[in-house]
Amino acid sequence: YNMCFREGGLILTAYDGSNYIQVKDFNATLDMHNNTEENIIIRSDQFGKLVSKVRNDTVDLQVKEGYLQVKADGLYKCEIYEGEEYPLFTKLDNKDLIEVDLGQLKHGFKAGKDTKSNIASDGPLFNFLIRDEKLIGTNGVKLSCTSIPNFTGDVLITPTLAQLIQAMEGSDVTVIIGNEHIQFETDNTIVYGPLGEGVAQFPNVNPLLDYEFIYHCKLNVSRLLDAVDRLKLFLGKYEGHVIDMDFIQDALILSTNTASEVIDYHSTDYGDSAWDDVRRNVNVYYLAEILKAMKGELCTIGYNSDGGFIQLTCGTDTFILALISERRN
User: Fold this and answer.
1) 10, 4 in Cβ contact below 8 A?
2) Measured distance CA(102)–CA(153) in Å, rounded
3) What residues does 131 pair with on adjacent strands?
4) Which of 5, 170, 230, 323 matches a 20 to 30 Å C-alpha distance to 192?
């Protein structure tokens, strides 16, 4: 870490070689060596783990000759790296500011964490896409889309940046998009890093999100997730993580070869069409990941008697899950 002790507070900066997070403590009471501004570099693993393990709400830091004295549950000396220059970033200028809801942005990254690809060689799908006020994560089989009002950029956000944003606090965050970097800033925290590469190669998912379904049923999210978790225990060796979803007129039936659960609908909507019982097959683990990402009590499942996917919506989130042709017995 780089720690800057100066009048007005303490500034701590962390850098991983590509991304920065900088936190300011305006309420810090400083006791500086020689009463002058101090910039020091200390080991992040030692200091970070120490602070996370202390029982006190505050710690006393004093810059001494050659070490940082930390007083908390005990007295500790953290080595200072002498003669080193910490690489610092230059803040992006404040043109074209975007103000977005920080809580909604953090939720969008959480919702997309398990739907985006976790394989770096998948290129743009390894990142989160923000385009047309939507935050999207997909691996080609499952997709999440969270509404982010006012975020009108067209950018890829790396998983590391998304993780750092989770550490930010406040109600709103100011976003500045540069040519190669992006910056997120609240009153006391700045997250800065490179944009993901390949935004132009990210697949166009709008046809999936705009697809119209004939049948819609509304169900309780926790009831559905509990049933899915129980059915995981009854997947046969050759069933390939696949369960049946039978949409009948009064309820949804989830089943494997040796277990089934019936979940009543809260409501249904199929317009002027006649009801048609439909069976859809999905990967049960992918379905569980999507349900765990929801933050509402009820979700709506949209489906047709044909087509290759189902749609699940909950609040400001839309999820797409590709179907599997059939469950093996």
Assistant:
1) yes
2) 16
3) 134, 154
4) 5
Give the predicted TM-score (pTM) of the model: 0.89
Q: What is the number of residues in the chain?
A: 329
Digitized pLDDT (tens) for each residue of the chain, 329 residues in all: 999 887 767 899 999 999 999 998 866 665 555 566 788 999 888 888 998 898 888 888 888 888 888 888 899 999 898 888 899 899 998 777 899 999 999 999 999 999 999 999 999 999 999 999 999 999 999 999 999 999 988 999 999 999 999 999 999 999 999 999 999 999 999 999 999 999 999 999 999 999 999 999 999 999 999 999 999 999 887 778 999 999 999 999 999 999 999 999 999 999 888 889 999 999 999 999 999 999 999 999 999 988 899 999 999 999 999 998 765 55
- Torsion, Cα 38 44 50 51, to 10 degrees, reads 60
Q: Which residues contact 224 (CB under 8 A, 6 or more apart)?
A: 252, 263, 291, 299
Count of alpha carbons within 13 Å of 6, Cβ hemisphere only?
A: 10
Query: Which amino acid, one-letter code, is at 318?
Result: T
